[in-house]
Amino acid sequence: MSVEMGRIDSADRIKRLPPYLFAEVDRLKRELIQKGKDVIDLGVGDPDLPTPKFIIDALYEAAKDAKNHRYALDQGLPELRKGMARWYQNRFGVELNPDTEILPLIGSKEGIAHLPLALLNPGDISLVPDPCYPVYKSATWFAGGEVHLLDLLEENQYLPTFKDIPDRTLERAKLLFLNYPNNPTGACATPEFFKNTVSFAKEHQLIVCHDAAYTEIAFDHYKPLSFLQTPGAKSVGVEFHSLSKTYNMTGWRVGFVCGNHEVVRHLSKLKANIDSGIFQAIQIAGLKALEHGQAEVDRLKAIYQKRRDIVVNGFQEIGWQIQPPKATFYMWLPVPPGYTSQELCLKFLKEANVVVVPGNGFGSNGEGYFRISLTMAEDRLTEAVNRIKKIHTK
Ligand SMILES: *Cc1c(COP(=O)(O)O)cnc(C)c1O
């Protein structure tokens, strides 16, 4: 079979996507693995541990039942939505109407990616943090919207300041994306910040989209907030939640959006024309996870905390003072003087065979930082830290 090259052109919206920044790191990583090098990959933000057994068992049972084999309801099983509402009530004290204020998603990324299509008209603006999870930007562009970046800076605890946004931008702004606990910086929001966000959104008629993928991965007894705990939040926005990181279920694709009923309804209407819901057996297993997962989550948090401390203590010995993150399984570390983010990552890969992510891959404010994922067993993490220490002190 011969394939004619270059005959089929992509849409402009695909061409407009920024170049993949990790291409060089990926190429080199593959090359080293091919050469038989023992590469330790601290790049991926994907839990290394398996899904808890009781969730797998629930899937197995549900998968055997023929009534779960057909198209699922677009809005998800009512019992699942009720379970999600109960979970929010127990965890955050937030009351949600399971019929109007909750919509299950095929992973939260799916909902985040579709939201701008449901809410933006061409030329509308999304306010997007820099650095950030890249989907906020691409989803906005796909909907014909424009992105205005909000600086997340270390000196502001990686919280955006709204006062610098030009009035002309604010007039056209419709969405405000936020994400706390934050990927990639590990930063957490304060109640004051969320309170200011609600006032700001009300004043400028913005819809807040808070990505809460990491609220359950937190340390030292810290309990991250839901944006919806803020008085008035439900009138201005929604929160995206995910089972992926909480229960080691990234591959299963189950999450939900909750909060403002109009936003939920618009997204639901859009999605009814795109997908046909989540495999019902996965919904049933997801409900089990929400109902009975807390002990597993506590166990998992202790594991990540130990790993975090290995990295903090390890690097302390070469004089790197690291603020241990209060949440997420990421560590956001400053690049030592004399290197760009990209240069440092290539050095780590070539000389220590350790993969870390250059911070500029998440936005230009990420330059000067790199991200380590704690999704690696303790002995491998220790080995990675030792290798980096060795080349650093050489
Ligand atoms: C992992 C991640 C997601 C995606 O989660 P899914 O529910 O698996 O789609 C969303 N936002 C952030 C910030 C993430 O890191």
Compose a concise summary of this entry.
The chain is α/β, with parallel strands linked by helices. The protein folds into two domains: 124 residues, Aspartate Aminotransferase, domain 1 (Alpha-Beta Complex), CATH 3.90.1150.10; 240 residues, Type I PLP-dependent aspartate aminotransferase-like (Major domain) (Aspartate Aminotransferase, domain 2). Helices cover 41% and strands 14% of the residues.
Key features?
binds pyridoxal-5'-phosphate, Aspartate Aminotransferase, domain 1, 7-stranded mixed β-sheet, 3-stranded antiparallel β-sheet, Aspartate Aminotransferase, domain 2, 14 helices
Q: Structural class of the helices, strands and pairings?
A: alpha/beta
User: Main beta sheet, described?
Assistant: 7 strands, mixed
CATH superfamily of the largest domain: Type I PLP-dependent aspartate aminotransferase-like (Major domain)
CATH topology grouping of the largest domain: Aspartate Aminotransferase, domain 2
Side by side, the strands of the main sheet go 2-8-7-6-5-3-4
**Helicity range:** 40-55%
Which sequence of SSEs, written as H and E, runs from N to C? HHEHHEHEHEHEHEHEEHHHEHEEEH
Mean pLDDT: 95
CATH-derived architecture of the largest domain: 3-Layer(aba) Sandwich
Instruction: Name every ligand kind in the structure.
Output: pyridoxal-5'-phosphate
The geometry reads as globular
Number of helices: 14
Gyration radius from CA atoms, angstroms:
21 Å
**Amino-to-carboxy terminus distance:** 53 Å
